[in-house]
Every structure is written in C-alpha cells, then in structure tokens.
Design a protein that fits this description.
mainly beta; Lipocalin; ten-stranded antiparallel barrel
Length: about 240
Amino acid sequence: MKFFKMFIIGLLFFSVNLFAANDDWDDVNFSSQAEFDDFAKDLGGTLNFNALGPAAPLGILGFDVAAGMSVTSFSTGYLDKVGAEHSDTLVFAKVQVQKGLPLGIDIGLSRSSAINSNVVKTGGFISYAILKGGIATPAINTRFSMSKLSNVDVLEFSSQTLEVSISKGITIVTPFVGAGAVRSKTRATVANRGGVDLKESSSTQGKYFAGINMNLLFMDILVQYTKVGESSTSALKLGFRF
C-alpha cells in the first residue's frame, strides 16, 4: 500500500512538473554542521545505487534493459536549504542496463534524472552469485555498487554500497529481499550562506530492501521498496530480462 501511495505521488509530481519550473539545487544555506550532516545522510539514502533486480545471475548470454521511476521522501525536510523551495520529495526517471558474465558475475550501469529538480545520479555495480538458484534452491548474491551526483554545482556526493540479496522464482513471480550498508560522502562546493563553515560529511547507514519481479513474457515488471537510514524509496521498473 505504501508503494502505491508513493507511486501515485510520483505521478502527480510528474504531471505538475510538465507545466511548472523545477526545484533546482543551487544554494547552500545551513545554520549548523548538524543540519548539514542530517541532510547528507538523507542524500546517502536517496542517491545510493539501487540495482532493482532479483539475486539470480543472468548468465553469459543474459541481459536486462529497463526504464523505471522512483520516489524518495527526505526525512529531514532540508531540501529548502539547497534551494528546493516546494518539495521534500525527489521523483526520478531511470534507465538501467545489466549484463551477465561467466562464473555468476553480472555488471550494470544506470542513470537517473530527477523530474522535479536538476539532480542527476549515475552509478554502476558488479555482483557475484554465491548460489545461482534452481528449482528447489534460492539464488543468493553479493553486490558492490557506486553512485555519484552530477549536474549540481553546489554539492559533491558519492556513495559505495555493499549488500547481499536472496530470491526464489515461483512460476512467473520472483520475490527478493536484501540488506547491506551504504557509505557516503557529501561536500559543499560553494560558501555556506548560513554563516557556518561546513566540513565534509561522511556516514554509514544500513540498507534494507524487498521487491517482486514478474516475468510477463513480453516484458518484466518489478516493484521494490528500499529503506536506507531514515529515507525510504519506492520504485517501479519496466524492461526486458533474459
């Protein structure tokens, strides 16, 4: 229910922003280092890489090409500190490509652009299937990913994520769950108008996610809910997975 609520909010934001100006991040105006640290944690929860897929490897001939949409709410409400006056929510449109390699290894790349701001995040991952999964056994993989903020002149952000996930296909439906940790760094690249010299902020936060991938022959549909620290993200992905 929470996913559908956030997805509907995302659709509303998409409709509104067809006709309204974007909430660009073009300012730094924090009154304390603590405020900036809380904001940076939210960035770690928002801009970390989400692979959006089950644990089973694609195999040497396999690939996954998809487009999607995600909605993330900022728990701190500090988006106005970077110039976003009208929203505490980011709505992303995303494209993702994943390719299977030998030995249960997969690699992937993605690019996400916020519909309601100038925020762009790019990322990539490499995963290894500890168990490839079968008729009676689940698939288990470990995945390392990185992401970076771009198109924003006032901030620098990067993150690294290490996670483990498990999935089990049941006919056309494959549910999956996973957990890991996100390490992120955020730095202001312009003077803070709040009158405080801001230091680079680093944090490590727990990550938990769950989702379902449905193979409908003509396309795959995936929904996923992710929680990193206090930030939550709901995502929908449509694509072709072979």
